[in-house]
Amino acid sequence: MTNLGWVSLVDRHTADVVVGTLGPPGTSSEQAAHLLRSRLRRESRTELYQTYEQAYEELRSGALTHVVVANAYKEIHRFYMDDSLVLSDVFVMDTPLYGIAKRQDREGLSAVPTIASHPSPKPLVAQLLPSGFRVGEIVSVDSTSSAAKAVAEGAFDLALTTEPAAALYGLEFISRKRPIRMVWSVFVRS
């Protein structure tokens, strides 16, 4: 995870900082939230949500002071267009490594496996799927960590997930791994 640049636009950093983002533990968004917290250099905590929409509502209600959103998120325009919110920071960060993972005890995978993925990184499936496999059904889940959890529970054959999520759920990678160079937006209440 490399921080490649940071722009602060608004100083709305209150004494009690609560940063919200996409969870569960193991997401790239969680890593980005930790980076924001280290940059703020004050007492803070991270709250993880099942969806960015939930974090959005919590920011609007005042339960959060900041929300970190990946710019690959297809509905990020909701944050930008909401006049009750303001863009406070923008930064570039390489995500943790992404790859395709399976349960460690899983043998005899189908040549056309069912793959769980968050919608945003789905194009990586074709890039990372090892030879001998073909892209079959890709099932959308709320996060790459949710994808790892679903595979650990036996719901799907494979997950497009991150190293932290794979480790958390005891999965092993069957593909090469790569980061995503991502722009992240931080929103606060106006």
CATH hierarchy, class of the largest domain: Alpha Beta
Approximately how much beta-strand content do the residues carry? 25-35%
CATH topology of the largest domain: D-Maltodextrin-Binding Protein, domain 2
| Euclidean distance between termini CA atoms | 30 Å
Secondary-structure element sequence? EEHEHEHEEEHEHEHEE
How many domains, in number, for the residues?
2
Rounded to an integer in angstroms, the radius of gyration calculated over CA atoms is 17 Å
The overall strand count is: 11
pLDDT < 50 stretches = none
User: Strand sequence of the main sheet, in spatial order?
Assistant: 1-5-11-4-2-3
Pfam families: PDT
Protein name: Prephenate dehydratase domain-containing protein
Organism: Cystobacter fuscus
Domain Prephenate dehydratase: 18-190
Descriptive report:
The structure is a single chain. With 190 residues, the protein is of the alpha/beta class. The protein folds into two domains: 3-95 and 181-189, 3-Layer(aba) Sandwich (D-Maltodextrin-Binding Protein, domain 2); 98-173, 3-Layer(aba) Sandwich (D-Maltodextrin-Binding Protein, domain 2). It has helices at 28-40, 52-61, 77-81, 123-128, 144-152, 163-168; strands at 3-8, 17-22, 44-49, 66-70, 85-94, 98-103, 115-117, 138-140, 158-162, 171-173, 181-189. Strands 1-5-11-4-2-3 form a six-stranded mixed sheet, with helices on both faces. A five-stranded mixed sheet has the order 8-7-9-6-10. Strand 7, helix 4 (123-128) and strand 8 (138-140) form a beta-alpha-beta unit. The chain is elongated. The mean pLDDT is 94.
Task: Describe the SSE topology.
Elements: E1 3-8, E2 17-22, H1 28-40, E3 44-49, H2 52-61, E4 66-70, H3 77-81, E5 85-94, E6 98-103, E7 115-117, H4 123-128, E8 138-140, H5 144-152, E9 158-162, H6 163-168, E10 171-173, E11 181-189
Parallel strand pairs: 2-3, 2-4, 7-8, 7-9
Antiparallel strand pairs: 1-5, 4-11, 5-11, 6-9, 6-10
